[in-house]
């Protein structure tokens, strides 16, 4: 069906004027025939070329931004002028044959004038941005070149009707058939072959324009003046519209919500620093106030159409300017229903992508950059918005988040970051045709459901649906619009334009012609919205933001729109993160009409405590999701105490029983072993530990627990403390052979007899010896000790039984060096015979030992007596020397019975003092080892004198060399 974009004459007048149009043949202008206004400026922005016999104009310089604006050429070397003589007076429409470069939508725009005549390169109000040429156009010879087209392939020549891009028609008076026509370049990569001016009201095919032929007249749809009221009047959801000059016509007869198109973007308002242009935004706000409909502010933070002057400021200064911008909007527009705080965060953050990237703002770091969350800059933006707009519903807005699961999930992640901080109230999804048209309905619904799991109202903010033919657009409206309108979480839809001048005019997304005539999709839309019964649910604020699990509460809500008999409304509790992906039903009520209701709900006692819960109300038949309550809820657990399990201890020790407590401090508890209760109050930690020392196996039980906010009591179990017996260790010392030495098994003689003994411990299941040095294996029951150096060796074995209980046993081994020759190959040893020490061969030792009173080593009794050497007597100190006799050195050991001052000295046979081995305080029960070096002493007998606590003891030391 042929569609007319702009009609200035009534049909009768149109047909009566066909003769005039027949005379006014289309006027063809070769693009390369123009004159560049300032061709001398280098580098060149526009060149003239020839290819395969076709001359054309090529844009080689990309657009220039001036004061944040790219709405005019902004340079004289980017303006081309033509002088045109028309065959007759009349109104003409402009067509162009263009070729979009490989960059597609980055190579597809230029500026056309809105009238004939010369104009400054900087007059934004006299230039029209013809953008989006990559998305349409015509190449088939029989195609009528109207407003859109399907030739979206790059690098092909195609015809585009430029008057459809808001460039208006061009009027040629009879007195001025010669006119000046100018164009301005914008994006490099665009080629223009020729322009054609065709009489208004005449339709031209591609062949007509290629050959400069006159077109034909087809009657357009008749003008239409919609009667109103707005399409969604009386419905619980609004159908809104974008507000701009092309879209203002009949706005109040179609729409009951308003948003400014470009007027609210920071670059439009403050293109020059501290110079504010509120005109367009004021107009949209005034429309909202005049019509008493919601006003949405679009937009505070974005990565596009931002002031160029802010890009290179220091971050601190950028942040100050951002706050000024927020404050200025808040002051000027106090009644904003929905505020787009951040637009397109996943696609167009305020960061400069390249040196030629214009209008990004480049202030992402001033807002905290990506930070730890990856979206700190978004969080900061909403924190500022909450500060400056405390009573406004804050919105996040983005496109292409409904067509892929990955996009929806990424968007939901940002939403949840904001929701968990109580920073976001509503969610915006743009809903453009390039996102919805290629996406199956089931996928769109699934992704909407995923985003709706945040529990926030969803608004479709920038809906447009393409359609070059009426039937194509109608079918897509019938497929997509009900999916949004009837979705249980969607609360309103805004069309991003409905008349020519629409940003997707080239794709046929407009719903009405310039004369008001409605396309088929608009007629269907009006009928569908008005006849479709829908309802909404609004969850009202709760009485508190903090509840105990298991408690009851009232969930108030309001139902608007159509009612259904015996309809069930259910209150749902989110999970601990605030998500409604898998909600929990906590109560329901039945109602049949719109109105205010309340659900008596019970929070499950099994719900985990947390601080991010939310509650919403939903219904079935029809399915509607209410918004969640507006702030996060804290759910606190009822107090519980867990005392369970079996604790085993060893006799004589204690058990530490830990009580795990949940709830809000302080707690108090009482526990008992069945006889005496013990009460503890003022517990502030989540675990309380108490110590018990039963003499036999005992059962302990917890009888009560309470806390300061969620009062209650619980008996959660019992703990059995089992008392296990200690082991009874045994210890035996067995020599490696049975050679008779005349001594005890714990005394070994270097030079004679067995040099190893086996230490055998009993009474347990595992054994550990300390120290390990000198033993063959310190982790077995029967390690072997081998004598190598003289001395006293004390070993302690820890015996552990099958219950894990342990006890110790101690043994002391004495090693005496009885060798009496300096020749290492000699086998002579010392023998005490009849009170005198003699040096004899080892072969002679058995004979000597058979005689009473004889023994190995020194004749001093304490040197050969284990009891004298280690234990001492009950009335004095331990006082021993080993080896004795000695050849190089001897170790003198003493142990004081009581703590006292001790003096230990050695005298020679003349009574002369030769060494002081110890002088000072000695502690009771502690062993002290000292060494007497014999190298500097002469062979002979010495006296060691110990003075302790007024008692004097002496030992005789024999030095043999």
UniProtKB/TrEMBL annotation:
<dbReference type="Pfam" id="PF18962">
    <property type="entry name" value="Por_Secre_tail"/>
</dbReference>
<keyword id="KW-0119">Carbohydrate metabolism</keyword>
<comment type="similarity">
    <text>Belongs to the glycosyl hydrolase 10 (cellulase F) family.</text>
</comment>
<keyword id="KW-0624">Polysaccharide degradation</keyword>
<dbReference type="InterPro" id="IPR026444">
    <property type="entry name" value="Secre_tail"/>
</dbReference>
<dbReference type="InterPro" id="IPR044846">
    <property type="entry name" value="GH10"/>
</dbReference>
<dbReference type="InterPro" id="IPR017853">
    <property type="entry name" value="GH"/>
</dbReference>
<keyword id="KW-0732">Signal</keyword>
<keyword id="KW-0378">Hydrolase</keyword>
<dbReference type="Pfam" id="PF24312">
    <property type="entry name" value="Ig-like_POM152"/>
</dbReference>
<feature type="active site" description="Nucleophile">
    <location>
        <position position="462"/>
    </location>
</feature>
<dbReference type="InterPro" id="IPR001000">
    <property type="entry name" value="GH10_dom"/>
</dbReference>
<dbReference type="GO" id="GO:0045493">
    <property type="term" value="P:xylan catabolic process"/>
</dbReference>
<keyword id="KW-0858">Xylan degradation</keyword>
<dbReference type="InterPro" id="IPR035986">
    <property type="entry name" value="PKD_dom_sf"/>
</dbReference>
<dbReference type="InterPro" id="IPR013783">
    <property type="entry name" value="Ig-like_fold"/>
</dbReference>
<protein>
    <recommendedName>
        <fullName>endo-1,4-beta-xylanase</fullName>
        <ecNumber>3.2.1.8</ecNumber>
    </recommendedName>
</protein>
<dbReference type="InterPro" id="IPR056541">
    <property type="entry name" value="Ig-like_POM152"/>
</dbReference>
<dbReference type="Pfam" id="PF00331">
    <property type="entry name" value="Glyco_hydro_10"/>
</dbReference>
<keyword id="KW-0326">Glycosidase</keyword>
<feature type="signal peptide">
    <location>
        <begin position="1"/>
        <end position="21"/>
    </location>
</feature>
<dbReference type="InterPro" id="IPR031158">
    <property type="entry name" value="GH10_AS"/>
</dbReference>
<dbReference type="GO" id="GO:0031176">
    <property type="term" value="F:endo-1,4-beta-xylanase activity"/>
</dbReference>
<feature type="domain" description="GH10">
    <location>
        <begin position="233"/>
        <end position="528"/>
    </location>
</feature>
């Amino acid at each position: 069906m042929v569609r007319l974009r702009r009609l200035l004459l009534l049909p009768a007048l149109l047909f009566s004027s066909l003769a005039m149009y027949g005379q006014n043949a289309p006027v063809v202008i070769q693009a390369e025939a123009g004159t560049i206004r300032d061709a001398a400026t280098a580098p060149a922005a526009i060149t003239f070329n020839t290819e395969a016999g076709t001359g054309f104009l090529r844009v080689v310089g990309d657009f220039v931004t001036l004061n944040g604006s790219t709405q005019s050429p902004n340079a004289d070397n980017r303006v081309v002028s033509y002088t045109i003589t028309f065959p007759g007076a009349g109104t003409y429409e402009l067509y162009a044959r263009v070729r979009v470069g490989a960059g597609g939508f980055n190579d597809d725009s230029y500026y056309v004038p809105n009238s004939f005549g010369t104009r400054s390169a900087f007059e934004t109000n006299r230039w029209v941005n013809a953008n989006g040429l990559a998305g349409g156009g015509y190449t088939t010879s029989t195609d009528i070149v109207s407003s859109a087209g399907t030739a979206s392939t790059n690098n092909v020549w195609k015809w585009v009707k430029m008057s459809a891009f808001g460039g208006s028609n061009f009027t040629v008076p009879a007195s001025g058939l010669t006119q000046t026509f100018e164009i301005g370049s914008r994006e490099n990569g665009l080629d223009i072959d020729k322009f054609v001016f065709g009489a208004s009201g005449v339709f031209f095919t591609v062949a007509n324009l290629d050959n400069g032929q006159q077109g034909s007249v087809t009657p357009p749809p008749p003008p239409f003046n919609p009667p109103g009221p707005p399409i969604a009047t009386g419905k619980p959801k609004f159908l809104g519209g974008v507000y701009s000059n092309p879209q203002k016509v009949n706005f109040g007869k179609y729409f009951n919500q308003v948003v400014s198109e470009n007027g609210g973007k920071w670059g439009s308002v403050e293109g020059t620093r501290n110079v504010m242009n509120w005109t367009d935004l004021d107009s949209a706000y005034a429309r909202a106030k005049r019509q008493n409909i919601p006003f949405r502010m679009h937009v505070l933070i974005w990565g596009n159409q931002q002031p160029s002057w802010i890009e290179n400021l220091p971050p601190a200064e950028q942040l100050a300017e951002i706050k000024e911008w927020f404050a200025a909007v808040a002051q000027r527009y106090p009644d904003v229903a929905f505020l787009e705080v951040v637009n397109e965060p996943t696609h167009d953050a305020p960061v400069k992508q390249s040196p030629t990237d214009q209008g990004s703002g480049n202030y992402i770091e001033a807002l905290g950059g990506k930070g730890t969350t990856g979206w700190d800059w978004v969080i900061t933006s909403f924190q500022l918005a909450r500060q400056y707009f405390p009573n406004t519903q804050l919105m996040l807005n983005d496109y292409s988040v409904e067509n892929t699961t990955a996009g929806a999930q990424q968007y939901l992640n940002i939403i949840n970051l904001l929701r968990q901080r109580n920073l976001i109230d509503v969610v915006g999804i743009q809903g453009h045709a390039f996102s919805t048209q290629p996406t199956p309905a089931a996928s769109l619904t699934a992704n909407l459901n995923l985003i709706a799991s945040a529990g926030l109202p969803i608004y479709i903010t920038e809906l447009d649906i393409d359609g070059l033919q009426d039937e194509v657009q109608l079918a897509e409206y019938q497929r997509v619009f009900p999916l949004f309108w009837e979705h249980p979480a969607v609360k309103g839809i805004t069309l991003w334009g409905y008349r020519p001048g629409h940003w997707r005019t080239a794709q046929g997304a407009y719903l009405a012609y310039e004369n008001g005539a409605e396309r088929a999709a608009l007629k269907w839309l009006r009928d569908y919205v008005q006849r479709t019964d829908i309802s909404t649910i609004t969850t009202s604020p709760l009485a508190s933001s903090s509840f105990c699990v298991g408690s009851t509460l009232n969930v108030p809500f309001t139902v608007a729109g159509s009612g259904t008999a015996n309809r069930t409304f259910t209150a749902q509790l989110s999970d601990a993160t605030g998500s409604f992906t898998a909600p929990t039903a906590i109560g329901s009520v039945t109602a049949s009409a719109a109105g205010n209701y309340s659900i008596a709900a019970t929070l499950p006692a099994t719900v985990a405590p947390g601080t991010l819960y939310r509650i919403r109300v939903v219904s079935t038949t029809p399915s509607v999701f209410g918004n969640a309550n507006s702030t996060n809820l804290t759910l606190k657990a009822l107090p519980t105490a867990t005392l369970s399990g079996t604790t085993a201890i060893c006799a004589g020790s204690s058990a530490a029983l830990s009580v795990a407590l949940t709830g809000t401090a302080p707690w108090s508890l009482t526990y008992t072993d069945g006889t005496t209760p013990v009460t503890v109050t003022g517990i502030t930690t989540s675990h309380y530990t108490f110590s018990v020392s039963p003499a036999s196996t005992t059962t302990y039980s917890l009888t009560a627990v309470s806390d300061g906010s969620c009062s209650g009591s619980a008996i959660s179990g019992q703990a059995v403390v089992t008392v296990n017996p200690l082991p009874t260790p045994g210890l035996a010392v067995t020599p490696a052979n049975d050679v008779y030495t005349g001594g005890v098994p714990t005394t070994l003689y270097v030079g004679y007899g067995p040099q190893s003994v086996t230490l055998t411990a009993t009474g347990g299941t595992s054994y550990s010896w300390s120290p390990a040095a000198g033993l063959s294996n310190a982790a077995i029951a029967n390690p072997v000790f081998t004598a190598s150096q003289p001395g006293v060796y004390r070993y302690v074995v820890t015996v552990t039984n099958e219950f894990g209980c342990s006890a110790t046993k101690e043994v002391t081994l004495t090693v005496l060096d009885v060798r009496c020759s300096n020749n290492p190959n000699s086998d002579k040893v010392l023998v005490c015979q009849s009170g005198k020490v003699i040096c004899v061969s080892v072969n002679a030792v058995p004979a000597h030992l058979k005689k009473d009173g004889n023994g190995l080593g020194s004749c001093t009794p304490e040197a050969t007596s284990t009891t004298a050497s280690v234990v001492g007597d009950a009335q004095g100190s331990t006082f021993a020397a080993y080896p004795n006799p000695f050849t190089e050195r001897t170790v003198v050991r003493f142990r004081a019975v009581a703590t006292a001052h001790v003096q230990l000295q050695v005298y020679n046979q003349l009574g002369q003092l030769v060494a002081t081995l110890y002088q000072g305080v000695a502690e009771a029960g502690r062993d002290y080892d000292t060494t007497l070096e014999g190298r500097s002493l002469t062979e002979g007998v010495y006296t060691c004198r110990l003075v302790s606590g007024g008692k004097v003891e002496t030992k005789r030391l024999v030095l043999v060399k």
